[in-house]
Amino acid sequence: MLILTCHVTYWDRFGWKDNFAKSAFDQRQWEYATALRRKNVFTPQVIVNGQVDGVGHNSRDLQVLITKGNAFSTAQTMEILYMIHGGGITVSGLGNEHGVVSVIRYDDIPRL
């Protein structure tokens, strides 16, 4: 399980400026809303396996979302090729399927 926190900017208009917020995260959330046929976005939002979403207020609700999302899990073996060049990475795969590649940088050193 990989948990990401993406701070959105649309709360800034209410006078609370989130220094971690980025408009790219707003866009990402709207892209999920479109894919999931939602007419609005909300926080806190949980998305499981790109197929199920809901409000993540408590552990019981989260467990329900995870269970529903796991029903969409289709474990597959994929061959992904990548090449690092200059300041970029080229990612490719075999076959005719398409997908979304998200590159996530993280620091595995706990900090306080």
Q: Describe the biggest sheet?
A: 2 strands, antiparallel
Distance between the termini: 22 Å
Order of SSEs: HEEHEE
Q: How many strand units?
A: 4
Q: Give the mean pLDDT.
A: 85
In the sheet with the most strands, the strands line up as: 1-2
The proportion of residues forming helix, as a percent range, comes to 10-25%
State Rg. 17 Å
The count of helical stretches stands at 2
Note the beta-strand portion.
15-25%
Shape: globular
Pfam family, one: DUF1223
InterPro entries: DUF1223, Thioredoxin-like_sf
Protein model, in words:
By secondary structure, the protein is of the alpha+beta class. 22% of the residues lie in helices and 18% in strands. The chain contains two helices and four strands, in the order H-E-E-H-E-E. The strands form two sheets. Strands 1-2 form a two-stranded antiparallel sheet. The model has no long low-confidence stretch (mean pLDDT 85).
List its salient traits:
alpha+beta; 2 helices; 4 strands; two-stranded antiparallel ribbon; two-stranded antiparallel sheet
Describe the structure in brief.
The protein is of the alpha+beta class. The chain contains 2 helices and 4 strands.
SSE order and pairing:
Elements: H1 23-35, E1 45-48, E2 52-55, H2 59-70, E3 80-85, E4 88-93
Antiparallel strand pairs: 1-2, 3-4
